[in-house]
């Protein structure tokens, strides 16, 4: 850690440890003052630099204590959308003169305690959309968001637009992973949500009632999706544990712009989900490619936008061209704009970054909120039916 040399006899450094919290609750920075040479902590205080959406406590230090907990208190405006990339903690004299300060990048996962604070019972989130629209890559991005070592993870096999990578109807339990000193993964925690991956939508599949069977929990796990469903088969009896509680409909930004024939097919399934009272979220994948194309054709875009993957970018997460796509999707699918999200998945990045994590986390947070509400409603309905017997 970097310290500040007061003189040859005085040297102070600080280290930080954080713990997961729910956004809306105080975020705790556990600070240890590591080296104190020829220096007294009496008459000093710790404070976090002001942030637009967070207030900081001020803690007065003392010589007999080297570990402190500094609370960052979120304002009403705080959200995943505007969490800063880093926080700056300073140790100062009571006069206000700074002794030393340290910048810390805090991972976004530390603010996502809410999705792990639900009941231990799993809820199901279905990923549905065109072949190559980023469904499997989204699972990898979620795993990367939640991993503790800051390196993107290839959790499941993902591919492009040629051929189907996902060929079975299967769920993925996302595990929070870390690595030991030997580079091996260690399982730390299992998520309360299941991400169900499906066969990519094309002209030849989902011809009959497959989608409805999936939503009501009638399609068995590991079902080979190229097989012909035989109606009347007893294996297709609805199972509550497989019932879907939210659907993420993936469509590429290019398909949305062009209003392709596949977009019309997706709209039909969105309407079916609505009829079955399963909440829908529209995910506009490959959002960065739209900006890249705009940069090639318009001088205005060349100065207004840079790479949306760039973690150092100060540009809005959703620049105007993406906001236009959100509005277009809302009008096309007849869904509220707060249920439509552009997505940039991890691709070739060597490390995770806050900017890509935000694209992923906004979708995951919304999906978990809707899914948990749907599951609760389903449980209440089952309880009423049992009471009426």
Considering the chains and any ligands shown, give keywords for the structure.
Immunoglobulin-like, 2 domains, seven-stranded mixed beta sheet, disordered N terminus, Rossmann fold, single chain, alpha+beta, 389 residues, elongated, 27% helix, 16 strands
Overall number of domains: 2
The strand line-up of the biggest sheet is 13-11-12-10-14-15-16
Share of residues in helices: 25-40%
Instruction: Note the run of SSEs as H and E.
Output: EEEEEEEEEEHEEHEEHHEHHHEH
Give a short account of the largest sheet.
Answer: 7 strands, mixed
Give me the secondary-structure category: alpha+beta
| CATH class descriptor of the largest domain | Alpha Beta
Instruction: Identify the overall geometry.
Output: elongated
Beta-strand proportion: 25-35%
Can you identify the CATH superfamily of the largest domain?
P-loop containing nucleotide triphosphate hydrolases
Rg from Cα: 24 Å
Number of helices: 8
List the topology elements.
Elements lengths: L3 E4 L2 E9 L8 E11 L6 E5 L5 E3 L1 E3 L6 E8 L12 E7 L4 E7 L18 E7 L5 H12 L21 E12 L5 E13 L12 H6 L7 E2 L21 E7 H6 L2 H15 L4 E6 L1 H11 L1 H6 L15 H14 L6 E3 L11 H35 L1
Parallel strand pairs: 10-12, 10-14, 14-15, 15-16
Antiparallel strand pairs: 1-2, 2-3, 3-7, 4-6, 4-8, 5-7, 8-9, 11-12, 11-13
